[in-house]
Design brief:
This protein is of the alpha+beta class. The protein has ten helices and four strands. The protein has a four-stranded mixed beta sheet, with helices on one face. Helix 1 packs parallel to helix 3, helix 1 packs antiparallel against helix 6 and helix 1 crosses helix 9. The chain binds glutathione. The site of glutathione has 14 residues, from helix 1 and helix 3.
Amino acid sequence: MLKFYYSGAPNPTKVALFLEEAGLPYEPIPVDGRKGEQHKPEYLAINPNAKVPAIVDGDVTVFDSNAILLYLAEKTGKFLPPKNDKARGELLSWLMFVASGVGPYSGQSVHFRVYAPEKNEYAINRYAFEAQRHFGILDARLAKRTYMLGDTYTIVDMDVWGWARLIPTVLGEGAWAKFPNLKRLVDEISARPAAQRALALAAKHKFKTEMDDEARKALFGHMAVKVA
Ligand SMILES: N[C@@H](CCC(=O)N[C@@H](CS)C(=O)NCC(=O)O)C(=O)O
């Protein structure tokens, strides 16, 4: 059975959504980031980047949420746009946009707003600005179509949902008012039974919640090293 390495964080949750939507049988294997389980040699053999999610599907290993979404969609033929070059171009563009922009800027925005030991106004504003700009681009696109790629619910919508449902954490309370079209999509997806099962998965395992020294050491390796 497909093994799914996960935590309750945004990137694994998008993959949980796909697995639940597609009805694929899978064995969930928790990787507790705050306990440093992502750095264990046996997990590094699966994902040398020491992050979740990852999957092992027979003799195939895939890491990175966006790669996994594309792999599973192509394998099952589910949640893909129509088969033509134009739709394929849009699929790849928007998947990479979420992978290289929405995810990293949102993650860094949360890091500097919530976790950084010093509140650096320049960094907070830089990442919040970029996260907001990326969400604004998604919102403008969703003003003109039901789903990211048109009339069909695809892996791009799942990819967007992973981070967009956390907009108040990324940008602060009240931020939803700036993205009414994105909110419509997020609310629609969150109400789907598969999304509720994906969110419930994180609650089935008792992940560590304390941000203590062990957690900081595991998640913020840079704090112990002077690189530049
Ligand atoms: N590009 C990767 C990013 C994965 C990622 O940042 N995962 C976070 C959880 S959302 C993680 O594992 N953090 C633990 C750590 O940084 O040590 C993806 O989309 O899968």
